[in-house]
């Protein structure tokens, strides 16, 4: 086992171990007071927005605000990254490239396959299949929420990635056309994360299930990040930026779901809306040790 194989095994073991610890200790964790207060204020703002202007208008405001923040953060991150390319990205790229000569053939074949978890066709299929399956699961709640948010999330990621690629314009490695930020990493975090969130919100299970769901998303993100770097598809900072990009978009779409999955007081389906509000309040008081 050469160094690059050892690195891959180590990353997978660490990600798996962190997930196991989170699952086993989930019942003992509580959100810090500051995080709980932010969650409570967000719940009040979302509820007030829905009461005053309706679900769709409030969700649109959340979406545009999240998109604006995402563009600003990635643009701010992209320019300094360009300046470090020769001193950081190129040496890391050359190290991975040199390690390919001694890596086992089965290892290389495995990562050429695993990189596809963030591929365009694969995530397109997951987006459509996830929307349809979740529409059935949410039929007693609001079937149209997953049908709306999953395709919007996919289109948003692809559109903003193309925009950021043009705005930052940092070039690509000599082996591929992989650009800033990594779309594969962003799609894994966003699409897998959003599907997991919608499933967990539908069932409203205990904290261990929430920990297991997010641990699964984290493991998939690690697999995709290593695959894109090992296969020389991206500069390593493109990979880190892709994870950040996907995380910001996921937070935005989670906020949109929180708004859409509510009722205007006195409207039809009020019981469902009250249940969604209670779900939000329970999730506010999760992770971080006492």
From TrEMBL:
Residues 271-290 are annotated as: Disordered. Keywords: Membrane, Transmembrane, Transmembrane helix. Residues 177-256 form the Phosphatidic acid phosphatase type 2/haloperoxidase domain. Gene3D superfamilies: Phosphatidic acid phosphatase type 2/haloperoxidase (1.20.144.10). Residues 272-284 have a biased composition (Basic and acidic residues). The chain crosses the membrane at residues 6-23, 56-77, 117-136, 143-160, 180-202, 209-227, 239-260. This is Phosphatidic acid phosphatase type 2/haloperoxidase domain-containing protein.
């Amino acid at each position: 086992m050469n160094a690059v194989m050892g690195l891959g095994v180590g990353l997978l073991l660490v990600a798996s171990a962190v997930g196991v610890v989170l699952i086993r200790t989930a019942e003992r964790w509580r959100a810090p007071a500051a995080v709980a207060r932010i969650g409570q204020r967000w719940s009040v703002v979302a509820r007030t927005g829905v009461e005053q202007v309706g679900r769709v208008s409030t969700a649109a405001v959340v979406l545009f605000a999240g998109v604006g923040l995402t563009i600003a953060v990635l643009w701010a991150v992209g320019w300094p990254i360009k300046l470090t390319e020769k001193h950081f990205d190129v040496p890391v790229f050359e190290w991975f490239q040199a390690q390919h000569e001694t890596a086992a053939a089965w290892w290389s074949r495995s990562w050429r396959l695993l990189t596809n978890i963030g591929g365009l066709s694969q995530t397109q299929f997951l987006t459509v299949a996830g929307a349809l399956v979740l529409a059935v699961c949410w039929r007693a709640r609001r079937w149209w929420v997953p049908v709306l948010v999953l395709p919007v999330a996919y289109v948003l990621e692809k559109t903003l990635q193309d925009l950021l690629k043009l705005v930052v314009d940092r070039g690509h490695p000599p082996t591929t056309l992989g650009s800033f930020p990594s779309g594969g990493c962003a799609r894994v975090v966003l699409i897998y994360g959003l599907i997991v969130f919608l499933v967990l919100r539908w069932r409203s299970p205990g904290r261990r299930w929430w920990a297991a769901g997010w641990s699964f998303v984290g493991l998939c993100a690690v697999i995709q990040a290593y695959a894109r770097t090992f296969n020389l598809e991206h500069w390593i900072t493109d990979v880190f930026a892709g994870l950040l990009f996907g995380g910001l978009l996921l937070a935005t779409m989670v906020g949109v779901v929180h708004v859409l999955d509510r009722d205007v007081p006195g409207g039809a389906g009020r019981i469902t809306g009250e249940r969604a509000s209670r779900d939000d309040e329970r999730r506010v008081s999760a992770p971080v040790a006492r």
